[in-house]
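To whoever is on call:

I kicked off a structure prediction for a single chain this morning and the downstream step that reads the tokens threw a length-mismatch warning. I double-checked the sequence; it's 321 residues and nothing unusual in it as far as I can see. Pasting both halves so you can look.
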Amino acid sequence: MPVTDISTDPENLTMTLTADFAAPVSRLWTAFTDPRQLERFWGPPGWPAIFTAFDLRPGGRVDYRMTSPRGESSRGSWEVLSVTDGSGFEVLDSFVDADGNPMAEFPAMRMVFAFEGTDAGSRLTNVTYFTSAEALEQVVAMGAIEGSRMAMNQLDAVLLSLREYAQGKGTRTEILDDQHVRITRLVEGPRELVWRAHHEPELLRQWLLGPDGWQLVECETGDTYRYVWQQGDDEASRFGFEGETVLSDPTRRAVTTEKMIGMDGPSTLNDLQLYEEDGATLITLLIEYPDAATRDMILATGMTDGMETSYQRLEALVAAG
């Protein structure tokens, strides 16, 4: 993980994050100054950012919003104070409302980003300056330390091309914490086709099958969905999942609940995100479980292997257009 330290200094009213990367300073600089790349890591998992304005020059303004899987939104704005091309910039970061106006209950923070070369690559030092001890405590209480760590630890994947990061590595499952698992898979093909394959019943029936021998006998999509599988002609083998769409942002993101049909208990929350680069699409599925026990039980079923079999079919389907 690239983040090596996050520390607060109540006396000097600062929070400092340090992270090291196996990439040159020029590549790190590009990741922070290209809004499409910045979107991939600025928000922590589950709260991806979208930059709606990006004028990174002294006097310029940068606007962004982060959206949770359940649709809650947090908006921010940078007033750009200074830029030293290739090595750093300084902004005044404010929480803003839907109209872009600063929120009085959250004081603005001055943030200094510095990039320097190391023997192994490059280092980011990000110092945030607060106006009072209360403001520092407020941001820490909101989860800023862990959120910053999780956000910046996504940057390793961004510094590589999608193919360098994921090609040939199949379906990968990462346990993020007791409730969250992240699954990634690269598919050669455009995002639009991958999105359609996740939402059109006639396409889903061709790839969302799991191990060989199973078929998707019921497939309903929309604001609610229902999938039922059957092994061969054995109707007794039938099982399925159902849920509802919580958030949809075609062709970029879809969040749904998921619950096994006929079973009691809480649902999982499935956050599907698609990112395209150079003709390839990275599928990222962030799953929120009710607890660690449920997480471990489901992972132990061989879920990852079943998903890989399905994703291989999906890739062939996308390749066929």
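Update from on-call: the warning came from a stale cache, not from the record. Cleared it. Sanity check on the structure: The longest strand covers residues 234-249.
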